[in-house]
Amino acid sequence: MTAHHLRQLWQLIEANSSELLHELDDHSLVHWLVQRLRERCRLNREEEAEARRYIYSRLLLIREIS
After folding, report:
1. N or C: which end of the chain has fewer CB within 10 A?
2. Which domain of life is it from (predicted)?
């Protein structure tokens, strides 16, 4: 993921309520975050796949800090 995509992703995480981030199961949370990221950044299929892998690898951290 590019630095721009990473910044956008973490801004999304920080800007959204912790309730929402905790209510969703892992798959739904990844899907929701990728959809929001796609709204902010134009992602091709490869970048979207990278974003999914990155988010899955950081789910514990995302849930812990939110």
Report:
1. C
2. Bacteria
- In tens digits, what is the pLDDT along the chain, a chain of 66 residues? 899 999 999 999 999 878 888 899 999 999 999 999 999 999 999 999 999 999 999 999 998 886
Q: Of the candidates 61, 64, 28, 18, which has an alpha carbon nearest to the alpha carbon of residue 6? A: 61
pTM value surpassing 0.85:
yes
Question: What's the angle, vertex CA 16, arms to CA 35 and CA 41, rounded to 5?
Answer: 35
Contact 16, 57 (CB under 8 A): no
CA pair distance 54, 29, nearest whole angstrom: 13
